[in-house]
Structure formats: structure tokens, C-alpha cells
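Tutorial, part two.
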Amino acid sequence: MNQSGIYVPFDRRFPPESMPPKPETTFRGQVDTLAAPLVMPVSWRPPDIPSAMERNHREIVMRQKTLQFFTLILLSAILTVAAQAATKQEMATVINLAGKQRMLTQKMSKEALLIAKGIDVQANRENLRNTADLFDRTLKGLIQGDAQLGLPATTDPAILAQLDKVNGLWQQFKPNIEAVLKGDTGKPVLESIAKQNLPLLKNMNAAVQMYAKASGSSLDPAVATTINLAGKQRMLTQKMTKELLLVANGIAPEANREALAGTRALFDRTLKGLLDGDAKLGLPGTRDPAIRKQLTVVQQLWSEYQPVLAAVDTSKTGLETAARLNLPLLKEMNKAVKMYEAAVK
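Running the prediction step on this input gives:
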């Protein structure tokens, strides 16, 4: 009977598809339960009703998966922070050594011109050879990586293209250096050096700017600018001396006098900016007492060297003073750059 009190036959209480098949009948037309036992088809099964235990198991599995997911996110964040810390130091080294390449272009030119003027020929010949070798090795290290120099291989396609351009210019400039090392200091060689050193410098500087810009994700922009411009000061010490020597060797004297005045003014302004800040140059100033002390050493040397450059003194005494002071100025400025690099955390 149903809930209304009406009798319903047993075989109508369930829908046909959910009913087990009827047993077969005998030839007498009667149900023969012995001859045809009740057989449940393989395709038929009662509806799926998950037990409380199954539900609990599913909840536990979901919780475990959620926990694993958030654990992976946390681990990824930790590894990313660790990688960025390493990248900061690497980028500081890259900007430093790429910046140093600018200086080496000017140092080579200066050394060739000192040899041409007969000033400390043997020492400057050895210096020139070492400078050229270092430039060559560092350029390869920037491209391919150099563990001893602390340089990772460059992977940025645009920077690699710029370094390839620098390499092409270096292959044009290098024969001039080799000629001077072999004793050729004739005017054609010196004029080639005067003509080719600036494109090499400018394109190397373009690469440094690209590195500084690319470091934005890992290095504070003010820090990158400081390391870049402090490194550029090294180059300016050599560029000023080179320009003085070009005037002394009679190579485009008026143009080089003008260039020397501009280089000297830029070095002076940047040094003051490194100490106390210069918004237009993007320099925040230096608070670290040790670095400020080192910059003061640079300032003292600069106060001694600047009058020679301001007067464009190409006398024997003037050139000897320039030869004596430019390297200490370079070395002390380089110490400051290394201190800036080491301060990156």
C-alpha cells in the first residue's frame, strides 16, 4: 500500500530500469525459483550514496592538496628572494666592470700617447699591454661569463647585440695598440687612436646604461646610478689625461682643449654629487662614513691635479705631473667604486 492507503503491486513500486529482471518461468508457466535463480545483471547497481567515511576522506585529501599548494607558493617566494639577493650582487659587479671598460678605452689611449711623448716608455708599454688584455678578457666575460671576474653570462638579447657592436669596434681599434707595442708611434697611428677611441668609449657606455636599466628589477635605481657614475669617474681621470696628451702631441689641439674643459667640469661636478647629492645627475649623495672618507681622498688628489688640466699645461713638467697624478687618482676612485659595490645588500 502507498501512503494514501491504496494497494500498489510490488512490481510497480520501482521504476522498470531499477528493477532486477524477473526470474524465468518453467514450461508449466509457473515461476520456477529453483530452475531460474534470481540473477542481478552486471550493469545494474544501486545508486551511489557516499558514506560519511568517504566524505571525510575526500575532505582530508582536499585539505592536504591545499596545504601543498600554499607550501609551494611560500617556497617559491623564499627562493625568489634568495635569487634576487644574489642577482643584486651580480648586477653590481656587472655595472662596475662594464663601467670599468669605459675607463680602459681611455687608459689604453693615454698610455699609447705617453709612449709617443717618450714618458716612462718601458713602464707604459707594459701597462698598455696589460690594459689591452684586461679589456679583451672583460668584454668576453660580459658576453660569455667569467667566474673569476664574478661575471655571469649576459642573456639579454639587446645588451648582447650592443656588446657585439663594441667587439666589432674593439677589433678595429686593437691593431693601433699592437702597432704602438711594436714601436710604431707615428702620426697616422696616433690619429687612428684619436679617431677610434671615442666610438669605442661611447658604445661601451651605451652597454653600461643598458645594464643599469636592466638592473631595475633587482637593484635600487639610485644605487645603480651611483655605481654607474662613480665608475664613470675612473674613465674621466683617463680621458682628461688623454685629451691633455693629444694637445701635447699636436692632434686636433683646439678640439681637444675644448673636450678637456668639458671632461674636467664633469668630473668635478660628479665628485661633488657623489658626496652631497645632485638631483639632475640622479645622485642621492653618500652617507656611509667610510665611503665619504674615501671620496675625500679623491678630492685631495683632484685639487692637486686640476690646476695642470685647467691650464692645459703641456710642458715637460706639466706632462710629468699629469703622468704622476692620474693613476693615483684613478686607483683611489676605483677604491670608492668597490666600496659602493660592496655596500649593496
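Residues 24-36, 75-86 have pLDDT under 50 and may be disordered. In part three we will examine how such features are distributed along the chain.
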